[in-house]
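[Q] Does anyone have a clean structure-token version of this?
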Amino acid sequence: MDFENLKNKLDKGYFKLSDYFNDSFDIFKHLLKKEKKFIAFFFVSYLVLQIILLCIENMKLEINDFTLIFLLFLQIIINSAGIQKVGNLIEINNQKILFFRTIKKSFLIFFYIMVISIILAFVNIPMIDILIILFLFFNFLFFVHLLYLRDLDFVQTIKYSFYLCKGNRIRLLVPIIILILFFYFIFLPIKFIFGIIPNTSILGFIFKIFLTIFSSSFNLLLLTMATLIFLNVLYMDLKNIKKENSVSEIKNKNDTDFQ
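[A] Here you go.
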């Protein structure tokens, strides 16, 4: 994978749909071939999550709020590692994924989710809840990537996410939706086969591991594509800002010369 060439393309123009898919698959293949330690961490982390859920299911334990919070936080950390790894590769910045920085950023994501949950529980009117969720969803599409890949404070991240979403929602959502539909087209038949195999059997356990690897691979590919689209949108915006500043400087200079 030629990351130098990919990085240079980011501000040359918005990618075509085929470019997002082709480049995302190339990055994903690079991860599998060259980043074996990260891939092992990513897959094992997802496997641990599945084992925890399987233990809860087999022991017929009640899933309380603390368990859900713990599992959600683990999911956020795993996904954040994927975003940072892909982002660092594309931007060729050789940055390492810092543990404490990741935990700190993940707490902000978790705090954001909890605040929304409290607001929805307080409102408790289905139609208004749906409108709130849709409003936040369509205006926070780039929030997570901005938080992990750029050093902005929380308020700046929110404002810039709102700004980047204008005119770029379809650019992110269309390829992501296509990828999700493709995944479920393959996943549902596999899930059906798994459903007729007893979970307690050795074959059922092996199939569970296969299912986890398959779903975690898809999740990593999804994170890869979303990160690539985000960086393309970000670089194009920064390029446009530079152009606007240059035009403004020239105009101010001309106005000064005529005075």
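[Q] Thanks! Anything notable?
[A] Residues 202-258 form the longest helix (57 residues).
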